[in-house]
UniProtKB/TrEMBL annotation:
GO terms for biological process: cilium assembly; cilium movement involved in cell motility. PANTHER family: TEKTIN. It comes from Frankliniella fusca. Residues 243-284 form a coiled coil. Its main location: cytoplasm. It is found in: Cytoplasm, Cytoskeleton, Cilium axoneme. The keyword Cytoplasm applies. This is Tektin.
Amino acid sequence: MAGLGLQVEQSLLAEVEQIRSCQCRLKQLHQRVCDQLRCSRAAQQELELDVKSKESALGIDNVAHTLNNFSRGINYYGGIEKYDNTCVSTPREVKSCSSYRIVRHRRDLLTPLFPVGCRLTTPDSWAENSNRNCQRSQNERIKSAQLRADADNLINTCSNEIWNSWGSTNNAFSRRVAETLEAKGKLQMHLHKVQKEIFDEEKNIELLRKAILDKSKPLKVAHTRLEGRSHRRAVELCKDDAYNALVQEVQELEHSLNQLHRKLEEAEAQHQQLLYTQSNLESDLRLKVNSLFIDREKCMGMRRSFPINATIKY
């Protein structure tokens, strides 16, 4: 019994340790997911900024494409043809390095101002920047897909490990409950036998007391006869056959009563021992019933269904 109880404790401790190990691994995975989420959002932001810049450039090119000799707002810009778009620009006013700022002049011509401290790109560097953003986005998507697969595998692995620990603990509980039930049955059987023995012993005590009471009256009669015959006078006070018979009768009755008293004492001592044994059995039985209630009703009652769903939906 103690071995199975220790086995249940060890199974529970192993299950707790397994759950904590899974929690630690899941926390590490959660940190990786958070880091990957930040990287994916950074890549998304770069793509959004690149798309926004290209939409702005496309709008500017569309405006430039629609200009003709009769368009309003056309004007001279001295030295504009000498501007080298591979050099660092130093314009009058900008707010961002990642996009152009559009201002309106007096004649409603849209004029871009180049970013301060930013080198204007060549067609090759422009294409390289777009490809780099796409490649980073693709790499982050691959990492995210791999991380989702790792998360799926880890969750399923943790679920299987916890399920195995769960099943091992439940099996230990089942064996413990079965042995407790067996011990409870044996205790109830022994208790029933002890109670029957107590009942028989109490009947025996009553019979002994009745036998003592039954023999006390004949002894009183014999004593009274001897006492009465002791009042005879002179030569009449002799040890005749009647006297000898009375003395023998008294001796036999006293010997019988002594034996009955000794048996009564032994029966009462045995009765007290049986009562003590009954008390111990009842106490042990209460402990078994309490243990059975805790293991089967409380503990196993909370462990009837596995509290983890390994299904992952994206």
